């Protein structure tokens, strides 16, 4: 029997968890989820993207917008894994409805990224006069987007990109952990109430309807956590669900959600393996080839 727990819906709960009060849960989540961003940093030749843009523009200085920037784990991963040393400064603008996230992301920026403007806004509400940018990206950032706003958000994303610029999205597929665990949570703990997460295919469809022709590549990988790391496991799952009111024991015993989590448990190895399927979506300049690497 589902537990009766009236609660704010997906977008409101997501925003509430981007706060100082959610730091412990956030850090537990990123003990595993840093891998998401490392894989994105290795999936494309980012140095080639930036240098190619500089040549095409005839100017060294570039401008970038990070949509729903969160705590800045993607630029952090790029600085660690993408060979950006020696590039000319790139103005790095941040967009997020959370003031906490804007501060957190700004704090990790290092050369070649130079902190620029902070927009405390959702993508669909970004002022029409803002931009355009040479690069616009949203990495694991749009799960809580209201379905009725997908078209408007993708339209603003397209307009935010300069004519010869690049757009990058990384978003989980319906077959991957982020969407599957949340669907099981809504059904088994929330009695079917709540808005599901947005999938990569939803964003691709909206871009196509707007006349864009995105290239898509699927990344597959696992997050692995040992049975004994219960604090990490609890915090990770609570962050996946944006709900820290349900303890690990209840999550494991809940209808629908409990069996899903049990299916991820490798008893022989003493670990949970949460399998991810993530769509990497690229809108390139006209005639531009997507610089995938062997890591993608």
Please name the defining characteristics of this protein.
296 residues, alpha/beta, Rossmann fold, eight-stranded mixed beta sheet, 11 helices, 8 strands, disordered N terminus
Radius of gyration: 19 Å
What's the architecture of the domain at 10-175 and 193-222 and 275-283 in CATH terms? 3-Layer(aba) Sandwich
Count of DSSP helices? 11
Helical residues, percent? 25-40%
SSE diagram, text form:
Elements (H helix, E strand, L loop, with lengths): L9 H8 L5 H21 L2 H12 L4 E6 L5 H9 L8 E6 L3 H10 L4 E7 L13 E7 L10 H11 E12 L4 H12 L11 H10 L5 E12 L3 H12 L6 H6 L3 H7 L1 E2 L4 E13 L13
Parallel strand pairs: 1-2, 1-4, 2-3, 4-5
Antiparallel strand pairs: 5-8, 6-8, 7-8
Helix pairs in contact: 2-4, 2-9, 6-8, 7-11
How would you portray this structure in words?
This protein is an alpha/beta fold and 296 residues long. It has a domain at 10-175 and 193-222 and 275-283: Rossmann fold (3-Layer(aba) Sandwich). The protein has eleven helices and eight strands. It has helices at 10-17, 23-43, 46-57, 73-81, 99-108, 150-160, 177-188, 200-209, 230-241, 248-253, 257-263; strands at residues 62-67, 90-95, 113-119, 133-139, 161-172, 215-226, 265-266, 271-283. Strands 1, 2, 3, 4, 5, 6, 7 and 8 form an eight-stranded mixed sheet that branches. Strand 4 (133-139), helix 6 (150-160) and strand 5 (161-172) form a beta-alpha-beta unit. Helix 2 (23-43) packs across helix 9, helix 6 packs across helix 8 and helix 7 packs antiparallel against helix 11 (257-263). 44% of the residues are buried. Mean pLDDT is 93; it is low at 1-7.
